[in-house]
Design goal:
The chain is mainly α. It has helices spanning 4-20, 24-28, 33-47, 57-74, 81-113, 118-131, 133-143, 147-174, 179-189, 193-203, 205-220, 222-237, 248-261, 267-290, 294-298, 302-326.
Length: 327
């Protein structure tokens, strides 16, 4: 398996972060292994990047993407349908409002104000409004945009999503949104699933659970969006487009929640699965940190960063208003 060296590399640092955060000092300052792992990953990926062997790269990418999806599926063992129903329509409507307004704002500003390419605007807007890089790549499967436009959109997601992971726990301390609705705030506004888990877990386990439920509801909204985009593009070009990609990991997460709701597993087995899931998430966080290359972000140019920055501010400010109003 070509990826194994990179996976082992990420796992070693993840184990170090995992056991470090078990100490009393880290627990007293509420430092979890996910936050520590991504900080360590960003330091290694930017300061010591040239020392990482090329054969590790595939495994690092595998850890950041595939292992993360497995971890999200297993996250379902922490959540029951009773909790999902408790979040209810409030989380759903927060997702709908933030997705629609952010996408329309990004597309309008990008095409009319910044005069950017339509494909780039669409990719950047969907990355901010739905689920980050996965939404960008799903949309690109329809648009067939130039690779540099995809890279630009993904890089802005990484930049502002990374800022979100550290900003939102700080905002929780300012109480701009009540803790009872902070999970809805995080899940309906932060870009990537991984970033939602990191930010939510830094606030509290309850906030993290709610934020993941809301975020994965938002991820599943990618399917109807891509379906409508496919219809629009087919009508416009009169050609057949590729099939709509299905976010199976989000669907399997719901299946695991349903199984967990039946309470069939012994407590010790369930606890073991949850601990293993924490480790997988830590591995994915470290890999994500390594792949956060600030040199690439510096070379983006000003306009795409400004566009993504305005959408980020919109998500933070209007998202807070939505979360307060909707609960």
């Amino acid at each position: 398996m070509k990826s194994i060296k990179g996976i082992i590399f990420c796992s070693i640092f993840a184990l170090a972060a995992y056991f470090t955060c078990k100490c009393g000092f880290c627990q007293s300052i509420n430092l979890n292994s996910l936050t520590l792992a991504i900080i360590a990953g960003m330091i290694i990926g930017n300061v010591f990047n040239k020392f990482i062997p090329a054969e590790f790269r595939e495994g690092i990418t595998f850890s950041a993407k595939r292992l993360l999806r497995l971890a999200i599926i297993l996250y379902g063992f922490r959540i029951t349908f009773q909790q999902i129903f408790a979040v209810g329509l409030q989380g759903f409507w927060a997702d709908v409002i933030m997705l629609a307004t952010t996408y329309l704002l990004g597309y309008y500003l990008g095409t009319r104000v910044f005069k950017l390419d339509k494909d780039l605007c669409m990719l950047t807007a969907i990355g901010s409004s739905v689920c980050g890089a996965a939404a960008v790549l799903g949309t690109d499967s329809m648009l067939k945009a130039d690779s540099h436009k995809v890279s630009l959109a993904v890089s802005t997601v990484v930049l502002f999503g990374t800022i979100s992971m550290f900003l939102y726990p700080f905002l929780a301390g300012l109480c701009i949104v009540p803790e009872s609705s902070f999970g809805i705030y995080i899940g309906s506004t932060i870009h990537e699933v991984a970033q939602v888990v990191a930010a939510g877990s830094a606030v509290s386990p309850q906030v993290c659970d709610t934020s993941v439920i809301v975020k994965l509801t938002r991820v599943m909204m990618l399917v109807p969006y891509l379906f409508l985009l496919g219809l629009y593009l087919s009508k416009k070009s009169h050609t057949k487009r590729t099939k709509v990609p299905m976010p199976w990991f989000a669907i399997l997460f719901v299946v695991m929640c349903g199984f967990n709701s039946l309470n069939l597993l012994p407590a010790a087995v369930k606890s073991g699965i949850i601990e293993f899931d924490v480790f997988l998430l830590t591995v994915a966080m470290f890999a994500l940190g390594v792949e956060t290359n600030f040199e690439k972000i510096k070379g983006l140019g000003l306009k795409p960063i400004l566009l993504a920055g305005i959408m980020f501010i919109w998500l933070v400010v209007f998202g807070a208003c939505t979360a307060r109003f909707i609960v």
